[in-house]
Design goal:
This protein is an alpha+beta fold. Helices cover about 15% and strands about 30% of the residues.
């Protein structure tokens, strides 16, 4: 597709709720993102710039897909000029990274030359991704294409500064990573409680200011980088003491986290939507006890949860098939239940499905990070997972408890039907791969969490052998790594990625996968 008058842009489908706009290069992607962000119509939920694309996410209930495509084309045609540059940000650096010597040797230049050229370059933020506040910086003054490590580190410290391809970037928090580390900084790169959380937003201009290196031992390891700020970067403060004490946790089970409907419209800062994986189950649980559908509740993995009521408390439990008891009395799932002060609420081990949702009348209160109480397992945003002894506070109810004796529901199946929309990189795969995807019964592997689910089955054959430049991702995307088995991204997944997306699960299909457990089977179908 070509937009008049000659601005080349290809629009690729990204499921039912997004379009991937592909342009010629990084500069064109930066221009397109700035133009789209200047005046988005109602119904546009997120814009995610990347190396050669902009992912446009929208709500089809508020804006038709055809209108989204027309808006992208007309905006691309009308705005060919470079966007206004962003603010100038000085970032102090110590050139003490673990890979500094090896990187200089790889490039065939002295360490002093690498340092001076990196510090003298005029950098700008092309886009963010990978983690909240992680900025991909580019410079016309930087001629080097630096390969990533053959074996990524399992732990890169917060504040580490690295090189990969033509980019440089700083890690806002401790994460795995494959960039070559050349420096470190104590700058707070991401603070979810600040008015402007990301120190380096898109289009910001960055100047690196060298500092004298610290002595950290006999070798240059960079392991001390950022340790003074690790408690602030990517970690939420302790939950505020607010609301009315409702439940005291006796046993949190395998994992219990606070979840609401997440953080929409922040992907351009590298912040995933997060929130409840089974959004329907959370909404129903809240409705049962008179809360707004988006109120925070508890997401309980595999059950095994017990809590004592601090006051008379109405609760609702939905999601996985499990046994719920108040003291020794069995109570119904998908129904409002009154737990008297001093009584113990227990949610047994899930017999079908994976995640239970516990709504407390008034909603779960606590510290909100960037407008949400959701715990993001990848980014570390939101309240920490609950532990024995923690107190759950409840807020003010939104309405009366509905007079519901029973709410219709079904047991989560072991064969999960998942409708699929088109993916932007289906043409990277052999036609037989698309057929295999929808005719094969896939098995849920043990490699699953809130970030994604790897499926076991035959390898999907690729016909495009090259590497894919980083581009926007969203929940439901079926990425296919080199091993050929699809990985379905979930709510805590990264907002950009470098594996081709063959298809995208619908929102309903993605929610169904929230209840998938190892050994369950998945069957995809085209919509």
């Amino acid at each position: 597709m070509v937009t008049p008058p000659g601005v080349a842009i290809v629009l690729r489908p990204m499921g039912e709720r997004a379009v991937l706009a592909e342009v010629a290069d990084l500069a064109a992607a930066v221009r397109l993102h700035a133009a789209l962000a200047a005046d988005p119509p109602a119904g546009i939920d997120d814009l995610v710039p990347a190396a050669r694309t902009v992912l446009v996410c929208f709500d089809p209930a508020r804006i038709p897909p055809a209108s989204v495509r027309a808006w992208i084309r007309s905006t691309a045609s009308a705005h060919a000029e470079d966007p206004e540059p962003g603010p100038v940000v000085d970032v102090p650096l110590r050139y003490d990274g673990a890979d500094l010597d090896d990187t200089a040797a790889l490039l065939g230049i002295p360490v002093s030359d690498l340092v001076s050229r990196h510090a003298a370059a005029e950098w700008s933020v092309a886009f963010t991704g990978f983690a909240p506040g992680f900025a991909y910086l580019v410079s016309a003054d930087w001629p080097f294409d630096v390969p990533r490590l053959d074996r990524p580190r399992t732990r890169v410290p917060a504040g580490a500064v690295g090189l990969a391809a033509g980019f440089t970037g700083a890690y806002p928090r401790q994460t795995p990573g494959g960039w070559r580390l050349i420096a470190s900084t104590d700058a707070v790169l991401f603070d979810p409680d600040a008015a402007h959380p990301a120190l380096l937003p898109p289009r910001a201009r960055v100047r690196f200011v060298p500092e004298r290196p610290r002595v950290v031992g006999s070798s240059r390891s960079g392991s001390a980088a950022g340790t003074g700020m690790s408690a602030r970067v990517g970690m939420a403060p302790a939950p505020a003491s607010c609301g009315v004490p409702a439940l005291r946790v006796v046993d949190a089970g395998v994992s219990t986290t606070v979840q609401d409907l997440g953080r929409p419209r922040l992907a351009a800062l590298g912040v995933a939507r997060s929130g409840a994986l089974d959004r329907r189950a959370l909404r129903v649980a809240n409705r049962l006890v008179g809360n707004d559908e988006g109120a925070a509740g508890l997401e309980i993995l595999l059950g095994g949860f017990r809590a004592r009521a601090e006051a008379d408390t109405w609760v609702g439990v939905t999601g996985a098939l499990t046994e719920v008891r108040v003291d020794e009395r069995a109570v119904d799932l998908y129904a409002p239940v009154l737990v008297r002060a001093g009584s113990e609420l227990s949610i047994g081990v899930a017999r079908a499905g994976l995640r239970s949702y516990l709504a407390v009348r008034g909603g779960v209160e606590g510290h909100a990070a960037m407008g949400s109480r959701a715990h993001d397992s990848l980014a570390g945003l939101g309240p920490a997972p609950l532990r024995a002894g923690d107190l759950v506070h409840a807020g003010v109810p939104a309405s009366a408890i509905p007079p519901v004796d029973v709410f219709p529901w079904t047991v989560p199946p072991s064969l999960i039907e998942v409708p699929l929309g088109e993916g932007p990189r289906a043409d990277w795969f052999a036609p037989e791969a698309l057929t295999t995807l929808v005719t094969q019964i896939w098995t849920v592997s043990s490699d699953l969490d809130r970030v994604g689910i790897r499926l076991d089955g035959p390898a999907l054959e690729r016909v495009h052998p090259g590497e894919l430049a980083s581009e926007g991702m969203r929940p439901g995307a079926l990425q296919v790594p080199p091993h050929g088995r699809p990985v379905v991204l979930l709510a805590d997944g990264p907002v950009t990625g470098g594996y081709p997306v063959i298809a995208v699960a619908t929102e309903a299909g993605t929610e169904a996968l929230a209840q998938a457990r190892p050994g369950d089977r998945v069957r995809f179908r085209r919509v």
